[in-house]
């Protein structure tokens, strides 16, 4: 159900006279602060009073100083902090009716009838119970003479919205929970460190990661690190796994691997439901194989550190959506949780999701493991199916191998640049196929190449489009062609994300953090990469809480620059000591980084000074983020499956002849599904001059960025999330991401 812009303009008024409270509960998760910030600012934006509840439900029960009216700047500079600044406590009192009665009194006293809870399924269930009991609690308060009848009538309904904060990614209905991506960052940092230091010794590492009931973290870590063996609660190993695991470890030693990695989720069990502790796995390896084996239990480290860019952006999106959901709620709308589908916020029926999450546990307890995985839905099913493919489909691996060989040979024999590059940046990718078509066709014929997998950026796509268009002239080009989009600019049509973009946004956040600490009364102007495409500037801007992000697609003029200077001056006066302005490298031909630097330096004289930081290739460096590793693995597997199907389908008279548009595609994430889009269809959607898609999904994050920065904006461009039905999602195993 989509609202029109008209309704959203009205939204601003509906917040007036209403009060929203936000609390964080249960185990802390990175990204909770970004959610608190977004709820607070969006709440203030729609004209509501916003209260921060400290120490979770305990603060709600205790009241007093634990419930504080928030101002715009109450949540400044918290987006980059780990944990939760408003605290989160386990609360026994709230599980009793007496405790909830006290909580209801505290809310009514402050006129609060909207509650946003960020926590795990237990916390959200508590919130729902509170809502169901609300009118009877108020009745009791009236009876006891603690509130008047009028007060009870005025506050007769409590709206609840849930944000799922859980590093385990264990909540049904949403693809990602707040904190899971950051936890993966911590795990991958440790695995990477082990891999670089352990190469000199032959060693086996048994890593125990969090996940009592959900193996998501373990599964993705295993895929992203190329682990030899994996134990997760949802997929207990079949009888005899000890022999198979040892054989596998021996096999990889024989193939020359010096390091074995075994990943164990803390809740791993065997098919009889008996726990498999990491120490048991270690002892087994030592006893049977005599390998030098170490156990590392990652524990609390996984909750620590700064939140990843993904979590900050996710939490911001979900927090904004939560406020809209509260504003739209009526006594008849069921309590909802805001989840993520693909990369879009969606409203989920809270209790159905909780029920489903419980069913998973029941299914696992009753050893119906396949059903548990299906019920879990979301990312787990998709990732686990890939894991199964990696472990079982030898054909696929062989095919993958042979495609690699083709590429290697072709490259070593001076294949014209522009095709068949496995890596490379947009700058090093200089020649497009059109200039060398004869030579390319000759090479394809010479090496008997029957399929083409191009991993690259905009040129990769444009190159395949040119090859496709030349098919009428050359039969040799009638072969399946697939583009896996890989560029930090994220400007390839046919996909919402390209490989490398998430890593680049994270790298940008890190660099900005390094340069901006310890300075006072200073505005940083940071230039980001991306050509004409403003994705990096916009997403980095949201993730670091920038005051503005200037991009080419969102034209700006001198008045906008002046408005921002005024805003920064105001901010400095309010003792907020830091300003941050991002500027995409090609956002404006005349308002250059240098121009903006000089403008801000002059206008800010006496109030703040201004420094420039050009991120440049710093954004390309560093280890790939867990998101990119995971996404890359998924795309790689799908691409090779697809190529193999096209080869079979189009094999006639001893050769491959593929000439339909469906055989030359870009592979990518389209809203919710990983899909193949024919390059010829994408042509109409492409702005070739500026090298980007004509319509970019992330553009609708711009109003949110401006709103969160208190920058002049009309929020009527914001497209709210849809209402999602859990039941359908949970069974659509193959769709989604
Ligand atoms: C930049 O300045 C030139 C004149 O030097 C002008 O022709 C051009 O239109 C300006 N560009 C923009 C985007 O305003
Ligand atoms: C070329 O490939 C086809 C199958 O695609 C195969 O039948 C043929 O023998 C190959 N020729 C050479 C020279 O490798």
UniProtKB/TrEMBL annotation:
Name assigned to this protein: Phosphofructokinase, liver a
GO cellular-component term (any): 6-phosphofructokinase complex
Domain of life: Eukaryota
Pfam families membership: PFK
InterPro entries referenced in this protein's UniProt entry, alphabetically: ATP_PFK, Phosphofructokinase_CS, Phosphofructokinase_dom, PKF_sf
Cofactor: Mg(2+)
GO MF, one example: identical protein binding
Membrane found in the keyword field: no
Record's keyword terms, sorted: Acetylation, Allosteric enzyme, ATP-binding, Cytoplasm, Glycolysis, Glycoprotein, Kinase, Magnesium, Metal-binding, Nucleotide-binding, Phosphoprotein, Transferase
Organism: Dicentrarchus labrax
Known catalytic reactions: beta-D-fructose 6-phosphate + ATP = beta-D-fructose 1,6-bisphosphate + ADP + H(+)
Pathway: Carbohydrate degradation; glycolysis; D-glyceraldehyde 3-phosphate and glycerone phosphate from D-glucose: step 3/4
Taxonomy of the source species: Eukaryota, Metazoa, Chordata, Craniata, Vertebrata
